[in-house]
Prior knowledge:
alpha+beta
Amino acid sequence: xxxxxxxxxxxxxxxxxxxxxxxxxxDLRALVTDLMDTLLGEPGRAGVAAPQIGVxxxxxxxxxxxxxxxxxxxxxxxxxxxxxxxxxxxxxxxxYFPTRRALHATVHxxxxxxxPLTVTGTGFLARALQHETDHLTGRLYVDTLTGDVRRRxxxxxxxxxxxxxxQR
Length: 168
């Protein structure tokens, strides 16, 4: 089991759009395994995207609402209906803000072998699919916030109020 450290806000890899995966080989399968080990290695995690472990590739894993898997090169379709719920991010640990997301989401992509797949979800799974797909475009959930919630989030981030890991 290889749990990789999570990159924290301020690391440029989190703000850089990822190139699509073009080679479906043992390296990609190892990346998917590392992502899944990192996701499942701590309780309460719903997803991990490749940039969060320092890899610029369009890959994420998820474990939400009883659904677990991975998606390579995802494209996202969302419903017009939305819901607002608290959302957080492993890359901004300890901060949670009410975030509006589409109530239904569908991701089309391929698996680690290049085979087509589609994942459709509502509620928490839809939120996780949107959140992880955003990571692959260099976008964090705080970028979706508006108004007073956005101002509060940015104030807390600037003040360093999120749980930064200790340097070793």
